[in-house]
Amino acid sequence: MTTSQEHPFLSNFLKDLYHCSDCGYCVEAIWEERNIDHVCATLQSHSPGLAYSGQGYISTARAWLEGENLPLESVAEHAFTCTSCGNCERICPIAMRPMAINRALRSELISRDKAPDSIVQIHENVINQQNPAGKPAEDRYDWVAGQDALNSSSAAPTNIMYLPGCASAYSRPQEAQATLRLLAASGQSIQLLADNDRCCGAPLKELGFKADAESSANQLSDSLAQYNYDVLLTSGCECANSLADSSNPTSFVTWLSAALNGKLLSLVSKKTTPHIACIESCQATISTHTQSADDTDNQILHQILSQLGVTVNGGEPTSRYALCCGAAGGMPSMQPASSAEMARARINDAVATANSADHGSLDALVSIDPRCVAHLASARADSDPPVYGLAEFIDTFFTVGKGDV
Amino acid sequence: MNKPEERLGIASLHSLDDITLFTDPVDLTSYRRDASSATPGKPDAVVRPHSPDAVAKVLKQANKGQVPVYARGGASMYAGGVNPQAGGIVLDMAGLDRILDIDLERGIVLCQPGVRFGSLLKALRPHGQTVGIVPSTAPSATVGGAVSSHALGTGSPQFQSMGDQVAGLEVVLANGERVQTGSAAAPGTGHFQRYCIGPDLTGLFIGADGTLGVIVAVALWLHPLPAARQTTCYGFPDAKSIEKCLLDIQARELVNNIWYGGAYEAPAIKTRISQAFPEKSLDDLPSFALAIDFRGETHRIEEDETQIAAIAEKYSGRHFPDFNEAYFNKLRTDEIYWYSYAGFFALSRCAILMSSLPTNKLSTFMTIIAKQREDYPEYPLGAAIVMCRRGLHGGVLSFYDEATQWEGANAAMKQCTDSLVKAGIVPYKSGKVSAEQVTGFSAYADLLQRLKSELDPNGILSPGDLGLTPKIPDSAETTL
Ligand SMILES: Cc1cc2nc3c(=O)[nH]c(=O)nc-3n(C[C@H](O)[C@H](O)[C@H](O)COP(=O)(O)OP(=O)(O)OC[C@H]3O[C@@H](n4cnc5c(N)ncnc54)[C@H](O)[C@@H]3O)c2cc1C
Ligand code: SF4
Ligand code: SF4
Q1: Mean of pLDDT values over A204-217
Q2: Are A363 and A276 in contact, with CB atoms under 8 Å apart?
Q3: Domain B435-479 annotated CATH 1.10.8
Q4: Could you say which of B22, B29, B35 has the minimum Cβ distance to residue A63?
Q5: Which CATH architecture has domain A263-402?
Q6: Are B156 and B389 in contact (CB under 8 A)?
């Protein structure tokens, strides 16, 4: 077998590699009582080859550790074709960590200069421009232009630091703008990091650039530490997860739930009963920043919507095993066709489920993670309902007023 | 001739749309084994057919080139049946995953072998129907794998085993011929009766681990979803009393409303009770618990429960509500399937041996387990006793670390299997792990080998399983 010097990342996972029972739950599981309907989006939309599954990454990692001469280009093609959705870990009955093992595989490949070019490019983008898409760093807050929400009163009861995250800032500015309007309507005072903002490191963490991911997260946390605020609010689910240990962030959906329950906001629907389908975000299912696995952001979303009288998914419950829409894990760069196929599959599923309940045509497709929203919107066909982030949806379908505080 | 598909003579399969072919070494690493502790194999190619025709084409080509073929479903079996120890092709049957017909009038569901039980149950629920036997790996196990490996467990008190629930099959033989069994053998008739026309050919392929043919369609009997359910546990002072109680229940056929019945021994009882009720004393716990999951009409359950309680009492059994509350009810109503034992106990890989025993050998089985624990204290051993309509199944689970204990765990399991066989307890799921024992049943093994030679003269189907000797040499690669 290998030494820890030869495989410093994988050798942290020997317990998992040698205790996995090969039960196959992380490959495929259909389990109605637990609302599980397939597990791995990569197997569904990219290839049915098991080497692209959690169990497959364990087999590959073991073979490599045990000295097999595997072609590393192929190992890289497989390892970097995983959405990092985490379903394989969530479903494992004996608490193995196949997604983390795949990240370690990625780190091993990176340390041998075997990461595919498209992945290296994402890394360079984050290092050079502080965002994975490589958009100019100085354009990060272009979306704020013309927003007067920032002029809210300094005497407001709560001071919120709003961190839009790279996806809202660059790819889905509508979500950041709508969030700002809702925050302002709730009477909170709002701060932005502006020039001190940067990627939280989540995309690098997914891709296995472990040290740079930590360094990005630390730099952002250090910047945040310079400010006084009561609540750190972020739109990106993966940002909330990435900052969970250092900065105690609150996701937008959690804030909204608290704002509605605390009567800081009043929302009156412009339409009798909006009928929407939610496309749950796998990153929200991971929700390391929430306390309990039964209380994920996806579930809070469903609670909010039912509280607002919105018909969601024709009454179907939320899944604790959301299949990735293809936006995560470097998928759009690494496997653009499969990534688009995943988004189409999620849209088609959502529309079919909602339509089967016969509540009339869908008004919107809603997701809480701006990275998913941007990706789903790019795969949307003209005949599909419009895709919104949660803040955009509220802003579009409700008259927003200050609550009775 | 460097490419594996050329060496295997299956390069032409690349051009077919109803087949996905994998030959990349990284792809192949994931198809070496199942959940067992049996030695893994190294396939030269993985073929994922999407239609029965595609299966026939692959087998024809493989037969011509004498290339081993191992059918694989969910690979959740613990007998090594899918491990391609002779190399060759792994036939990934999970691509044949359609439910073909739900015929409520005939009471039959016809499905392809790659359908997962989870999908099947979900599809049947709106019709108020279910199937008789459901393995505890239901979310991922396939119907074809369950038929080929004799599934049992949930449903066994009522329905015995998977084989008893099969109304007929469609099978592709080694030469690519397609055969229907049961009533469907008569063209245009379809599945409605298994035992007709002549001898039962369906049974040849049940529990055969893919050695005699590859199943491409399975007809299963439907059963109505039960109206009510209830779990009950009884505590017993020793193995002999629970054994007598079970014999009595079976003799009176008080099993028609029992969906699952299991016996649990002292260590398991102690663990559950101490976890759930840390304040309770463990001194007076029973040595065995009989746990029953009733399903059926409410009044029938009540009647049976009353009679079973009286029988239990006759053999010193008492209601044991703490065990029901601490463990069994939650286990059964939350449908947590195999989380039940392996997951909670050891968070580990485990070597599993499933055996079949007459009910009056329950205490013998427990004595062998006790001896095994003494001899191999380094492998924590779990015993799972599952009630059937007649007889019992005794599972032995040994938890081990594969990096350091693999050989030892296998040696321990072999000793256990040998002791069980000597005591008249037989391996139930043989695959490769009990192949040696099967070979020892000489008259049976000879006949099986003759049937094998007739149906699969080149020995391409699952060489090594059930101890059937392949005619192909040890390493497929050397001849290809
Ligand atoms: C923790 C744990 C708990 C389990 N609990 C149970 C239980 O409660 N009850 C139970 O019965 N089993 C149990 N099993 C064993 C196993 O999960 C089941 O028997 C399951 O039904 C096997 O299905 P599979 O699709 O995984 O089969 P596989 O493992 O893929 O295959 C099993 C055998 O069938 C052959 N095969 C597969 N498909 C075909 C086909 N189409 N044609 C011909 N041959 C084929 C294979 O070659 C192999 O020999 C358990 C396993 C584990 C690890
Ligand atoms: S993280 Fe998601 S996409 Fe990756 S292997 Fe696990 S289930 Fe599949
Ligand atoms: S990682 Fe967990 S779920 Fe996946 S095969 Fe191993 S034990 Fe099963």
Answers
A1: 96
A2: yes
A3: no
A4: B29
A5: 3-Layer(aba) Sandwich (3.40)
A6: yes
* Chain B residues lying within 8 Å of A34, measured CB to CB: 335
Does the beta carbon of B144 sit less than 6 angstroms from any atom of ligand 1?
yes
- Give the one of B22, B25, B338 whose C-beta lies nearest to A93's C-beta: B338
Helices (H), B112-220: 117-124, 143-148, 156-159, 202-205
- C-alpha of B5 from chain center: 32
Across the interface, do A29 and B24 touch by the CB < 8 Å criterion?
no
Q: In the structure, what pLDDT confidence band is assigned to residue B473 with cuts at 50, 70 and 90? A: very low
Question: Which residues contact residue B23 at a Cβ distance below 8 angstroms, ignoring those fewer than 6 apart?
Answer: B3, B4, B5, B44, B45, B46
Tokens found for residue B19: 């087949």
Q: Is the pLDDT of residue B472 over 60?
A: no
Tokens of residue B419, six digits: 């002791």
Quick one: pLDDT at residue B268? 86
State which fold the B350-427 domain adopts: GMP Synthetase; Chain A, domain 3 (3.30.300)
Residue A7 in this model has a pLDDT that exceeds 60: yes
Residue B452 pLDDT greater than 60, yes or no = yes
Q: Where are the domains of chain A?
A: 10-115, 140-256, 263-402
Residues A247 and A220: their CA atoms lie apart, in Å, by 9
B45-49 vs B69-72, strand pairing mode:
unpaired
pLDDT in tens, A75-123: 999 999 999 999 999 888 888 999 999 999 999 999 999 999 999 999 9
Question: Helices (DSSP H) in B376-426: which residue ranges?
Answer: 406-422
The whole-angstrom separation of Cα A383 and Cα B340 is 46
What are the tens digits of pLDDT across the range B376-386?
A: 998 888 888 99
pLDDT confidence of residue B4: 77
Which of B22, B23, B29 should we substitute to test contact with A (largest number of A Cβ atoms within 10 Å)?
Answer: B29
Say whether A77 sits in a helix, a strand or coil. Answer: helix
Domain B228-339: assigned CATH number: 3.30.70.3450
Distance CA B221, CA B14 (A): 37
Ligand 3: atom nearest CA of A97 is 1
Which superfamily does CATH assign the domain made up of A10-115 to?
Alpha-helical ferredoxin (1.10.1060.10)
The more confident residue out of B171 and A188 is B171
In Å, how far are A85, B12, B15, B210 from B54, measured between CA atoms? 33, 12, 12, 17
How much is the average pLDDT of A55-77? 97
SS3 of residue A365 by DSSP: strand
Q: How is chain B split into domains, by residue range? A: 4-94, 97-224, 228-339, 350-427, 435-479
Identify the pLDDT of residue B331: 81
pLDDT tens profile B318-371: 999 999 999 898 888 765 555 454 444 566 788 889 999 999 999 999 999 999
Tell me what pLDDT residue B363 has: 96
The amino acid sitting at B134 is V
Residue A365: CB atoms within 10 A of its CB come to 24
Residues A305 and A365: their CA atoms lie apart, in Å, by: 13
Q: Name the architecture of domain B97-224.
A: 2-Layer Sandwich (3.30)
Ligand 1 centroid, distance to B76 Cα (angstroms):
5
**Predicted pLDDT at B449:** 94
